[in-house]
């Protein structure tokens, strides 16, 4: 009886794993739809996405019911088996009492002892089922934990350069591949950078240009230490990324993403996480530098923002992200299409603020606007994961066909 109960309980594990997979798929579907709910509603696509969410929800429901049924079977079997055995003991005992070989008191005592033994036995199947369910739930977490984790490299023999001063930044013969899937890190790899060497002098403004998918954002991923190169290295001054603690390394970079994420909370909270010691005066100065105006005035620090920046425009989100970069003490600013949502006047004002900060900042920008890149000290043309050419605007117009094509076709637009 005990062995059979344990056997049934152990079958709960694969069912519990299926539940976790189904719930994960359902949550992913919900997140995907809710994250783009404006677009879904704009194109009246509710029914299209509703069907996929319903399929995932039905799968989760069926998996949950299977686990519940298995647990009910285990519980019902063990309880029924114990009742049958208890009746058998009482029946046999009654026959012994009738024959005079056993007294009623002895039978009662024996039945009490049997119940004390059977009660834990009845619980054993349920315990095994619960443990199997928990192990099944943990299996999904265990799979995630087998994925490669971001590791802090060993402390360097010398410290990283001090923040607050402009720094040289360089990539030396960098190769980078992305895994084709998270589930199988050994699967086919996608090469995105090949033998990339870039040198950026302290206090300079450098632009990266190229077609979409050329590898510009991948260069930023390597600079930030989000990915370790397969070959080559990245340097701040003469300190290697491979020898620096990654959390300390990133303190030297201020990344302004094209998406310009904004977190639910106040303007103050959206700024302070990059520099928790900043005073209100410093916060307002960063907002002014980035031209963060709401209603014609500098945004108030206690102004509340919705999830994803609800209530402010795309340009205002981008300017708020720029304000974070101004507020941070990072000596290197990375701009990934950071002014794409700004009008030309505001863009020029932000660029003026960036140039004013260049005495103690190094700026590297991914840009498509001619107005942004023409003033760069150096422009690197990236094509198919390689550095195709480098130089200033006029030099590249005369020497690089791809750069000239991008400008003339307005892929780089004013």
Briefly characterize the structure.
This protein is an alpha/beta fold. The protein has helices at residues 2-10, 12-35, 37-42, 46-99, 104-145, 216-223, 246-250, 267-272, 280-289, 314-327, 344-356, 370-373, 393-399, 401-408, and strands at 169-179, 189-200, 205-209, 231-236, 239-240, 253-256, 265-266, 293-294, 297-298, 304-305, 332-336, 362-366, 378-383, 386-391. It has two domains: 2-145, ABC transporter transmembrane region fold, CATH 1.20.1560; 169-408, Rossmann fold, CATH 3.40.50.
What brief labels describe this structure?
single chain, 414 residues, alpha/beta, ABC transporter transmembrane region fold, Rossmann fold, 6-stranded mixed beta sheet, 14 helices, elongated
Number of domains: 2
Roughly how much helix do the residues carry, as a percent range? 40-55%
Question: Using only CA atoms, what is the Rg?
Answer: 32 Å
Broad shape: elongated
Widest sheet: strand ordering? 6-11-12-3-13-14
Structural class: alpha/beta
Q: CATH homologous superfamily of the largest domain - what is it? A: P-loop containing nucleotide triphosphate hydrolases
Strand content: 15-25%
Please report the first level of CATH classification, the CATH class of the largest domain.
Alpha Beta
State the CATH architecture of the largest domain: 3-Layer(aba) Sandwich
Count of individual beta strands: 14
The third-level CATH topology of the largest domain is Rossmann fold
**Oligomerization:** single chain
């Amino acid at each position: 009886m005990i062995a059979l109960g344990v056997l049934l309980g152990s079958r709960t594990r694969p069912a519990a794993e299926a539940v976790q997979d189904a719930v994960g798929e359902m949550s992913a579907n919900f997140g995907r739809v809710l994250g783009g709910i404006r677009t879904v509603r704009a194109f009246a696509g509710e029914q299209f996405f509703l069907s996929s969410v319903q399929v995932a929800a039905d799968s989760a429901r069926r998996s949950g019911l299977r686990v519940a049924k298995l647990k009910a079977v285990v519980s019902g079997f063990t309880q029924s088996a114990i009742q049958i055995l208890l009746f058998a003991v009482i029946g046999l005992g009654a026959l012994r009492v009738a024959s005079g070989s056993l007294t009623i008191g002895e039978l009662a005592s024996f039945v009490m002892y049997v119940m004390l033994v059977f009660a834990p036995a009845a619980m054993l199947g349920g315990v095994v089922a619960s443990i199997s369910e928990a192990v099944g739930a943990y299996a999904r977490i265990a799979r995630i934990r087998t994925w490669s984790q971001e590791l802090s490299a060993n402390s360097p023999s010398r410290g990283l350069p001090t923040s607050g001063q402009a720094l040289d930044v360089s990539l030396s013969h960098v190769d980078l591949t992305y895994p084709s899937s998270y589930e199988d890190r050994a699967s086919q790899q996608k090469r995105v950078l090949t033998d990339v060497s870039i040198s950026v002098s302290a206090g300079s403004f450098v632009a990266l240009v190229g077609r979409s998918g050329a590898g510009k954002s991948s260069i930023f991923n390597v600079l930030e230490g989000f990915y370790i190169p397969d070959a080559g290295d990245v340097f701040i001054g003469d300190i290697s990324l491979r020898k620096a603690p990654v959390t300390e390394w990133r303190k030297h970079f201020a990344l302004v993403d094209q998406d310009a994420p904004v977190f639910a909370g106040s303007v103050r909270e959206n700024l302070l996480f990059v520099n928790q010691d900043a005073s209100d005066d410093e916060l307002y100065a960063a907002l002014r530098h980035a031209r963060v105006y709401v209603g014609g005035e500098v945004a108030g620090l206690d102004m509340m923002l919705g999830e994803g920046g609800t209530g402010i425009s795309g340009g205002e989100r981008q300017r708020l992200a720029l304000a974070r970069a101004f507020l941070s003490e990072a000596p290197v600013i990375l701009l990934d299409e950071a002014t794409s949502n700004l009008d030309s006047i505001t863009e020029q004002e932000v660029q003026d603020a960036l140039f004013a900060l260049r005495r103690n900042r190094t700026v590297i920008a991914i840009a498509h606007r001619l107005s942004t890149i023409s003033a760069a000290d150096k422009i690197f043309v990236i094509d198919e994961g390689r550095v195709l050419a480098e130089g200033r605007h006029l030099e590249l117009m005369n020497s690089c066909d791809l750069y000239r094509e991008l400008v003339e076709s307005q892929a780089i637009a004013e």
